[in-house]
Design brief:
By secondary structure, the chain is mainly alpha-helical. Helices cover 70% and strands 0% of the residues. It has a domain at 53-200: de novo design (two linked rop proteins) (Up-down Bundle), CATH 1.20.1440. It has helices at residues 16-81, 90-101, 112-130, 132-142, 144-147, 150-184, 189-194. The radius of gyration is 33 Å and the shape is rod-shaped.
């Protein structure tokens, strides 16, 4: 007591500095959550585009495999309907064998060298098929009954259709790869993609052969 007056009680308040620290911590936590959610969203988006590319690649593989399966049937049909001349299909069978040996799965399409090797083998077969009409025309002239064979007509139609379908499948793959690459190289996606190494590498494109603006026509 001072001069008979009771002392006034003193209250201790929390330091303002401590309150400000908690506020900053809250802001940091919120920013971390936002960055994490953004990262998750970006990853999911990249994965979606990546899966679409792989799906389009599966379509390309399917069409190439269909072509590989059809060519032996065409050879056998010609053999059965005519006095088969071996040289007629030598280039095609050799190109088919090479194309069949070069494999490229969906997880390896981001490898530029492997992709280029695969395309080179398949383009070699396409070039050989493009020469089929002139080669088979000689055989058909010698054996006119071959042209009237239903199996022959059906097979040559299927091969022509397959070349068109391959072109469509390749174009769709290129479109999907372009969308993926555009997304991957945008900011800040390019930063996040870098954390996953080769998981989200840029996708290569099919390049057209010189003079290959249209699919080969297999007509006789």
């Amino acid at each position: 007591m001072t001069n008979g007056t009771p002392d006034t009680p003193v209250y201790v308040h929390a330091p303002k500095k401590k309150i400000g620290l908690l506020g900053c911590l809250g802001v940091v936590v919120i920013l971390v959550i936002i960055v994490a959610l953004s990262g998750i969203s970006t990853y999911n988006s990249l994965n979606k585009f990546d899966q679409d590319v792989k799906g389009k690649w599966a379509d390309v593989e399917s069409e190439y495999q269909r072509r590989l399966d059809l060519l032996p049937n065409l050879v056998e049909t010609v053999k059965g309907a005519a006095n088969f001349e071996k040289d007629t299909f030598t280039a095609v069978t050799e190109a088919r064998s090479k194309a069949g040996q070069v494999k490229l799965d969906a997880n390896s399409i981001s490898n530029p060298e492997a992709f280029a090797k695969f395309q080179e083998a398949q383009d070699g077969l396409s070039s050989a098929i493009a020469q089929l009409p002139s080669r088979l025309m000689v055989v058909v002239e010698k054996y006119p009954e071959l042209k009237a064979t239903i199996n022959f007509q059906e097979l040559q139609s299927q091969i022509e259709g397959t070349e068109n379908r391959i072109k469509v499948a390749r174009n769709r793959f290129n479109e999907s790869a372009q969308k993926f690459n555009t997304k991957r190289m945008s900011f800040p996606t390019v930063l996040i993609a870098g954390f996953f190494g080769s998981r989200f590498s840029e996708k290569p494109f099919f390049k057209a052969q010189a003079g290959a603006e249209t699919a080969p026509k297999v007509k006789f």
